[in-house]
Amino acid sequence: MKNNRFVGAQVVLITLTIFVLQACTKYGKGFISPTMMYSTKLMVVPKGQVAKSNSLVSDGSSIPLNVKLYHIYDSTGTEVDALFSKTNTVDVWTKAYDPKVDTTFALVMAKRSSQELPPIVVNPTSGVIESNPGTLNIPSGKYTVDLQVSNIAGDEILKNAITLDFQEVAPFETDDASTGNFATGKAVAGTAPVTYSFNGANNPYIEYSILRYADTPNVVYMKIMDKNGVAFNPQKGEIIKRPQTGINPDPPFLQNLQDYAPDTYKALDTAMFIRYPLTPFPIVSLGNSFLMYYNIKTDYVTTDSTANWTSNPENLKYQGASDSHYLGVYKNGVYDYSVRIPMRVQVPGAYIFSVKILNATHR
User: Fold this and answer.
1) Taking burial as the number of CB atoms within 10 A of a residue's CB, which of 139, 207, 238, 254 is the most buried?
2) Torsions phi, psi of 27, nearest 5?
């Protein structure tokens, strides 16, 4: 009986010892998962724009992680590391942007600095992949990325971690769902209310062209022309900001280029000029999407009178006196011509944005 008690006590003692040892034992240093992944394995990269992927899902791996690009392959499986290692001069934020405070070119640029960066950069802690304007130099198409991830437990090579789809995009957006549409109309001279001749997609009274003529500097020339291509002169006051409606409105005018670039705006003889600090620009909307509101003073324009044109799904263009909508011309000196122009720059560069008004004649 004593022997049985002794044996039983030994078993209990051994069991307790094992339990205590297990509670105090560490099974190696950390853990690294071979199945870390992105929640979305395809990242669309709009060329010339800033874009970000999701974070890498660590799958229980010990943190901190150190994530690096390992190899990149094109659609044929050819390694193209050299293509993605070339650096470009890129402006980056050094301090947080505040749209209520940072309202001028100078204030924005005070929070930015230039760095030499490859076209895509991997955040070493989160694994977020970020593109920058240097992606303009990458041929369009799909590229597969291998990552090297390391932590206290070791390292893993994540093959085919994500696919990057480099796509051509509109460097300068206008007349679309994100920026808004052109609108044309008339206002009794010197007053705010506007009667629109057309307000919506495919404005028949507008033709426009966008010329990106250089990679630098970041500037826009906006030209507003009559049906014959004669430019209205902002410097002489032929083009003016459109007033707000109401009694003592604040602000007194609807948004315009000068509001978005108050310290770089210039009224030239054939165009309005701005220098912008970064893309996308405008950075944020001041209201009513990304629309610029202007009036052409009655002293400088003759406007055609036309029948109602409520929609234009076929994107037809107004043909002047030969058009079925033509009714004649309004008496000079009665109406200012009102035009609303959508625009947002998505890719850095120098642009000429020309807007021709087909039912207006300079005088």
Assistant:
1) 254
2) -90, 80
Q: How far apart are CA 195 and CA 305, in angstroms?
A: 12
For the chain, state the CA radius of gyration.
31
- Phi-psi category of 160—alpha, beta or left, where left has phi over 0 and alpha has psi -120 to 50? left
d(CA 232, CA 303): 14
Based on the number of CB atoms within 10 Å of its own CB, is 29 exposed (0-12), middle (13-18) or buried (19 or more)?
exposed
What integer best gives the mean pLDDT of the chain? 93
Which of 275, 272, 212 has the alpha carbon at shortest distance from 240? 272
From the CB of residue 36, how many other CB atoms can be counted at a distance below 10 Å?
20
Q: Note the pLDDT tens digit of each residue in 62-111.
A: 999 999 999 999 999 999 999 999 999 999 999 999 988 999 999 999 99
For 138, phi then psi, to 5°, come to: -95, 130
pTM of the predicted structure, to 2 decimals: 0.84
Query: What is the greatest pairwise CA distance in the chain?
Result: 124
* pLDDT on residue 22: 44
Q: Which of 360, 46, 55 is nearest to 198 (CA)?
A: 360
Q: Which structural domains are found in the chain, ordered by start? A: 37-167 (2.60.40.2710), 172-362 (no CATH)
Q: How confident is the model over 156-215, as pLDDT tens digits?
A: 999 999 999 999 999 999 999 999 999 999 999 999 999 999 999 999 999 999 999 999
Q: Residue 238 in contact with residue 300, Cβ under 8 Å?
A: yes
| Residues 131, 227: Cα–Cα separation, whole Å | 41
Token pair listed for 81? 């590391």
Which amino acid is located at 62 in the chain?
S
